[in-house]
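Have a close read of this protein, sequence plus C-alpha cells, and explain what the C-alpha cells say about the fold. Thanks in advance:
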Amino acid sequence: MNIAIILAGGKSTRFGSDKPLQMISDKPMIMHSVDAFLQAKVDKIIVVANTENAQKIKKLVPKSVRIILGGKSRQESVFNAIKFLEKSLKSEGVILIHNVANPFVGQEEIKNCIRLVKKFSACITGNLAVDTVKMVDGNFIKQTLPREKILLAETPQGFKWSVLYKAYKNAVTKKLSATDDAFLVERIGQKVAWTEASPLNKKLTFEHDLKPDLIGVGSDFHEFSRIGALTLAGLKFPKYKKLEADSDGDAILHAITTSISSALGGGSLGTFATSMCKSGIKNSRKYLEKTLKQMSEKGYSISNLSLSIESNEIKIDPISSKLKSALSHLLKINQSQIGITAIRGKNKNGLYCISAILLRQTH
C-alpha cells in the first residue's frame, strides 16, 4: 500500500496568506499536490490541515481524501498522521510525506521515490547544490563545504511504515526535533537514498516565489531626417542620418522601453514619453530609465533581450558589438544576454526595430 501524507497545517507566516488556498494557475495550491498523487494512483491520501483551513480544504478535495488536524509544528503534524495510520494500517506500506509548499511535484519523482523506498526502506527527493556552500559562525565564515556532497532536500520523502514509525517513536522518547523526516530516520541508523527532484519542484516559501516570468514585445519605426546624426542605443553614429522624431529618435531604446512597459502591463511609449518630450526631455535614455525603475520596484530584472532590426540603409552587423556594449551598460546586464539580428528592409528611408524581452523576479 502506498500512502501520501500532504502537510497543509502550517500558519504560512512568511508567505503572508494561507498557502494551501493560494491560487496557482486557476486552482488552489493544495490541489496541485492532491492531483499529483491522485494521478500517481496512490492507495490513500491524507491531508494534514489546521483548524482554520480544514473545512475549506475538505470542500476542495475528493471525498476519498481524508482530512486530519495537525499540531503546532511540522513534526507534530506528521506524528498526528502516524497515530491516525497506526489505528488502521494492517501491513507494511510506503508512506510518502509531502509539503503543500512543493506544488509542482512530478510523476517521475513520485515513482522513483516509491521504487527506492521498496529497495532501501527510505528515500528523499532533492538536488545537488550548484552554489558554493559556506558554514558560518556569527559574522564569519567557519568552513567551506564540498558542494558536490551537499543535497538540497525537497519533498516527497518516502519511508517504509515500520521505519517511519520507529523513527518518530524514537524522536518522542529522546525529545528530538527536526525540520524534515529523513533526519529522524537517520537518527535510528537507517540509510536514506535520494532521487533527483525536478527543477520545477521547489518549495514556495514567500509570496514572491509565485511571481511568473514576464515577456514583453515592443517595436518602433522612424524615417530618416535630412539633418543630424543617427542615435541608436544611446550612441551617436555621424555616418548615418538622424531618425525623424521630436526626441532623439533612438528607435532601439524606444522599442526596448515599450517592451519593458508591455511586460509590466503598461502602455505604449507615447503614454508617458510624449509629455516628457514636450517638457524638454528629448534623450530616450530618460524614457528607458523610467520603465527600468518601474521594473525594479515590481521586483523584476532583465533575463534576456532580443532585438530584430530592419534597415536598408544602415548595416547593423558591423556596429552590433558597439550596440551590445552600450545596452549592457544601460540595462546592467551582460552582453551574452543580448541578441541582435538584422535584415535588409523593404523601406529604404527608415529603420524598424522589434524588441522581445524576458523579465524574471529578483525579490
User: Anything to note?
Assistant: The chain has ten helices and 16 strands.
